[in-house]
Please model this.
Amino acid sequence: MLAPAHRIIKTSLILMALCMAPASFFAQEKKAAGAGLEFLEIAQRQDIRRRVDGKYAGLFYAYTLSRLEFDPLSQSGRASHYITEESLKDMTRTAKSIGLKLECAFEYAMEEGWNIRSGSPGPLRENFPPGLPPEARPGASWEAQGALRIDPLGSGSYSRVKILMSCVYQGLKDYRGKKAHEIKAVYALRYRAGEDPEGDKNLLSAEGSREALIYLDPESGAPLFVREMLKGESYRGPGASHRDEGFILHFYRGSAPQERTRERERERDRLVEELKDEDGVKIRDDVEGTVLVLDKLHFAADSPELLPGQESILERIATSLKRLPPEGKFLVTGHTANIGSQESQLSLSRERALRIVQALVKSGLSAERFLFEGRGGSQAIGDDSTEEGRAQNRRVEILLLD
Model:
């Protein structure tokens, strides 16, 4: 929920953060002396029934966490996307393994929209969800243009697909015990190879239709929740085709300038005070948030199993983490020394990260708050030619995704 002081910033501001910069935002920016969102988080859960070459292949689940930080004054921002591996298991209440992380830095201008300065835009969308026109009454209908970015082949390369949405305003409806603007929208996907020069070269075609149920905050116009129903989408790549049906859920959370910065500083100060005497726990500030560096955990050699006595350290860390806001998430990353094959390093670092997650969950934290990944020896902080350096590199980090 946005702070009351920023209620004059309408849906266009949120949509700008989702990679559009409509002129109305810049007009409001002048009036509000640069007020607006500083942070937007979008959690996306996908539940899909899939047929491959006409044969039923099962239910597939995936989860993506997108985090956007931007500065309306400098008209620049950055986005990070944590994309889980597709699974046959419902991951709703489990810790989620990161299969891919994408990042980009962007700029935006009133007439030109947005421009990627570096990196990949990943699954970011344009003008979606659509905003509510001024003075709209229940039953009002309109059309809105936008664009999705899709990766149906799971290549990590997203293709931009233009859409035209037919929207109908349903009025104020109940959403999680509060009133919210409800919009229904329908739109079709049509894509042919090469339409997006920056997209997946192996995506030969995509077509289908979707229906969306959209809830917007009645005070700020900010998106709260979107449910997309896939009515049957067909994708074709080299040598195979598949058809998906099911739904995609989008949950939105945003904060205003300085509000999140102050909260992050308070959390960091409290963690520093609570853990200052904990040997083997360091705290640093990262561009993505506060990081706990656990560099003295002892594992069995070449194993994810913790040695006796290590669980008590994690119990004390869990006690501090449980005092953080319940909507916050944690990214646990395992690191190893650069010894052995890259495959063995990645596997061991991932298993150790999962082992730490399991210990923290055992101490009372909810499993669904965790993402985890392994980086092997790719992010060394010490000299792998020395025992001291290798010990520094054998670490686990917990990023507070507030």
About this structure: The mean pLDDT is 85. The chain has six helices and 16 strands.
